[in-house]
Amino acid sequence: MKRYWLTAALLLVLAGVYSAAFQVPERHSAVVTRFGRPLRQVNESGLHWKLPAPVERATIIDGRIRLLRPPGLELLTADKRNIVAEIFIVYRIVDAVLFLTGAGSDEVAEAHLVDLSLAQLGAAIGQQDFSSLLGQEGQVQVIEQILDKMTVTVAERARAQMGIEIMRIGFRRLIFPPQNVASVIKRMKAERDKIARRYRSQGKQKAMEIAAEAEKEKGQILAAAKEASLKIRAQADAESARIYSQSYARDPELFRFLKTLETSEMVLKKKATVVIPYSSKFLDPLLRGGD
Amino acid sequence: MQPARRQLLFTLVFWLSLLAVLFLWKGVVTIQPGENGILTTFSRVAAGPLEPGLHFIVPFVQQVRVIKLATIRKEVIISEAQRVRLPAGDNRREGTRQPVTYFLTADENLVAVDASVQYRIRDPRDFTFSSRHLEETVRDLARHVLATELLATGVDEVLSRGRAELLHRLHRRLQQECSRLGLGILVTSFLLADVAPPRAAIGAFQKVSDARAEAGQILSQAQAEALEAKARARGQASGQLASAASYRADKLASARGQAQRFSKLAAEYHRAPNLTRRRLALEAQARTLPRVKKVYHHPRRMPPAIHLAP
Questions:
Q1: Is B288 on the interface with A (CB under 8 A)?
Q2: Predicted TM-score of the model (pTM)
């Protein structure tokens, strides 16, 4: 009988020890509650102790990064253009006690986060003109500024109310609503047609410019060549005249004689008729045998 | 030995050896090359990772998670361009009634995108414990980066010219986002397998690239023609110059020749002036007279009209 009591006591102690120990996994924390009232928060991972079960209980809170995807929302920009925004929220629980008292469960916390962020999103988009959402030249600053501003507000409330840290709010989608897509595509087509026409006409214009330029250069080249060759010819004429005159100047008498001879020879063309007197000395050697 | 004590000893040995077997079976961990182990004691992570090799642990109390470091993981972000590009009669297209998810570009064009990212583990501990939904988080961050970057990029750059630069920006920003959240991953690449305009506009985009090609062709043809015309003009010019040069050469040569002839003649003439004059005259007569009509005149009837030769 005594032995049974001993065994029972041992088992009770074991159960007590087991229920007094709790493990906190990496990046989790635990809230120890005494009769339901939060007593302390354990942020260190590993093995920890508390009073056994009915007195103290440990609630393990997952402090890892979580992802939340609120449903997409059709919004109106400041210049009354419809846009569908779908965001995601990256968050984690940093204050486990506040989370337990402020939210109590993941579902409640998520629902609250969705409400908070979608309200802020609507307000943020509603203040912006559509065109300001579109970045320029690879700059994404505007949209990130909008998100930052909205994140700050959501983060403040989430931290204060639920012990949640908002790490990132981003866009899964930011696009025209489906009913507008067809007209956007139509506009895209029209734009492309315009661009295609512009390419063609620009090409033709450029080609014409090139041809005109070539024609001009061609004219310049030919004119320059003509000028140069005329110059060469004129120089050649002048130079040869100089050569002639230099050489003839040495013997003007002979030159005169030769020129006369040459000229008279030229004057006597085929049709010319020459009257030769019999007395001419020209015929002497032939007709009268020399003297 | 009394039987009772013997039995106790036997029981003790039995349990001890069972424990030893258990330790050997459960307490030995091998980490392969390219892997790391994460050791937890009562769920608390040990400071450093377990390097490749043999390790002993306390069963039940300690646990090891093996992480493959070298593996490159791939996450498909979105895959819509393929759907856009399916031909009209394809049943896969008929099967998916859902509208295509487009992205908006800076010039208010819509594009469908096939995008994925590849990453490796940078920090095994962060990779394992940082996030509850790591893959989805990476995917959403990538989508955010993609959506916002496309909002800041013109459709032409997305479709052709600026793709490399865009990818570079996407990669850099995704890595920043992941590092900021401490996800323990290294983004190795951001891939845009395909970017397509909406199906109805594909033809119009094609027309633009056709027009661009055509314009380029017209331009290069014009350039070729211009070059040819200029070359022809230059040829003509050098022809003119060459003929001028040959004119010059001719002219000078003949001038020099005649000058030379004249000086030779002059030398001869100085030796015997009368004789030379006479010879020259007779030679001229010989050249001239055969080709003209000749009338011989008797001195008693008419005086001679011309005196040939002195």
A1: yes
A2: 0.73
